[in-house]
Amino acid sequence: MRKSLVKTLAVTMAAVMCAGMVSGCGAGSESKKADTQAEAPGTGDSKTADKSYELTVSGIGGSLNYLPIYIAEQEGWFKEKGLDIEEVLFTNGPVQMESLSSDGWDIGCTGVGGVFAGVLGYDALVLGSSNTDDGTQYVFARNDSDIVKAGKGHNSLSDEIYGDADSWKGKSILCNTGSVTQYVLIKVLEGFGLTVDDVNFIAMDPATAYSAFLAGEGDVCVLTGAGGTFKMLAESDKYIPVASGPMADSGLMCSFVANKNSYADPDKYEAMKVFMEVYFKTMDWMKENKEKAIDYCVDMNDENGSSMDRETTAKYLEADTYYTLQEACGMLNDKAEGSDHSVMDQRLLDVLDFFISVGNYKEGDQERFVGHTDGKLLNEVLTETAN
C-alpha cells in the first residue's frame, strides 16, 4: 500500500482531534489469506486484471462501511482485479470532505454528515449506499443523572427514551457537529419539545467525546461507530444508553461519495467500477464468513486505536445491515412512495430538511442537493456482474 502526503495530513488532523488514531495494514493478514483465498469474491468474474487501475479511497477509520475495504485489501482482492488502492482515513465526514478542495481522493465511504458536506460544499457526487447507519448511534448518561431518574415515557418519538424536558434542559452534551450523532441528538431533543439552544452543546468527535466523558466531562455523550459505543454499553453499572438512532427513528445510511473531477475521468471511472464490484462481493463474503469478518474487524479497530474485544466486535457488526448490490441499485432506481425522487434521494432529503429546520443548512440547499446522485456507475456494475 502506498502512502501519500494527503494521508499524512489526514492522520495529523485526526491526531489533533483523537489521540491514538492509526491507519494502515496490519500484521497477521497472511495467515488469514491462506484460510480464505479459495473463497476470494469475484475471482474469474466480469472484470479481470487485464488492465491496471489506481484509486485513492477515503473513509472513516474503524467504521463499518470501511471494513469491506480493509478486508479486500488484506486479502488482495483489489489487486487481483488490477486495482491499486491508496487509503486516506479521517475521524469524521466533514473533515473527510475538506480534502476534496485539493482533489485529495477519488471516492469515499461516509455517513450522511459527509454526504451533505461533500455535495453542498464541494460539488461531490453520491453513487449509492452501502449500509444502514443508525444501529451504533447511542446517547449516554451516567447512572446517577437526573435524566435517568426521570425515567422513560416522556418523549414523543419513543417510550424507551429516558428523561423529560426539564431533566434535559441545560445539560452539557458532548457531540460531533454536522454529523449523524448531532442529527440523532436533535431528533431526541425535538421529541421533548427542545432544541440545541436548550442545552449546552460541546462539539467533539466521537472518540474524543468518549475519552472526555470517561474523564468526567459533560452530562451526556453521543457516540457512534467503534469509538467507544460498545465499550460504554458493556459498563452498565456506570452508564445508561438514554437514547439511540433506532429509538429516534433516524433512518440513516452510509453512502459512497465521488470526487466529481475523478468521476469525469474515464480511467478513474473504470477504477471506481472495479472498486464497487469488489466492495459488494466482499460484503457478500462477510455474510457467509461471519467469524472471519469478526476477526478482521478486531484487527481493523486495533490498528485504528479503538480496540474492542471479540464479543463486543460481534455486536458491532450486527448493529447495522449491509446492503446487497441489488438493494443498493433498487434504492437508486425505485421512486419513494409519494415522491418524484428515488428512495435514496428522498431519505437523504428528509435528513437535509431536518438539518435545515434547525439551522445547520439553509433553505435552497434542497434544490442544490438534487441532481448530485448518479446511479449510472452502480447500475453498470450490477449489469456487468450479472452477465
What does it look like?
By secondary structure, this protein is α/β, with parallel strands linked by helices. The protein has two domains: 215 residues, Periplasmic binding protein-like II (D-Maltodextrin-Binding Protein, domain 2); 112 residues, Periplasmic binding protein-like II (D-Maltodextrin-Binding Protein, domain 2, 3-Layer(aba) Sandwich), CATH 3.40.190. The protein is built from 19 helices and ten strands. The strands form two sheets. The chain has a five-stranded mixed beta sheet with strand order 2-1-3-10-4. It has a five-stranded mixed beta sheet with strand order 7-6-8-5-9, with helices on both faces. Helix 9 links the parallel strand 6 and strand 7. Helix 3 crosses helix 13, helix 13 crosses helix 19 and helix 14 crosses helix 15. Its main location: periplasm. Pfam families: NMT1. It is found in: Periplasm. This is SsuA/THI5-like domain-containing protein. It comes from Enterocloster bolteae 90A9.
CATH topology of the largest domain, by name, is D-Maltodextrin-Binding Protein, domain 2
Give the biggest beta sheet: 5 strands, mixed
**How large is the radius of gyration?**
20 Å
Number of helices: 19
- Kindly state the percentage of residues in helix: 40-55%
**Total beta strand runs:** 10
User: CATH homologous superfamily name of the largest domain?
Assistant: Periplasmic binding protein-like II
> What's the CATH C level of the largest domain?
Alpha Beta
Unreliable residue stretches: 1-38
Q: Strands of the largest sheet, in order across it?
A: 2-1-3-10-4
Helix/strand class: alpha/beta
The CATH architecture of the largest domain comes to: 3-Layer(aba) Sandwich
